[in-house]
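Appendix B, Record 12. Input sequence as logged:
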Amino acid sequence: FAENPSADFKIKFWNKDFSEEELRELQDECHARFYRSPTYLMKQITKLRSWADFTAKARMGTRILTNRLGI
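Logged structural output:
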């Protein structure tokens, strides 16, 4: 791929127990459980130092959620 990239490139999954779709769903679920956990959210809130930090993180979070939900 690195020598001849193409727009329709797809990663080949070599897993006999899960389909590609099942692995994607599992990945999405794990990301959601981690990033929505109260501990992670509180750590991120305590790291905010300005209104600009807040708006940047809020914008990024909104973008991630809307992309994942297909909105």
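The two ends are 30 Å apart (CA to CA).
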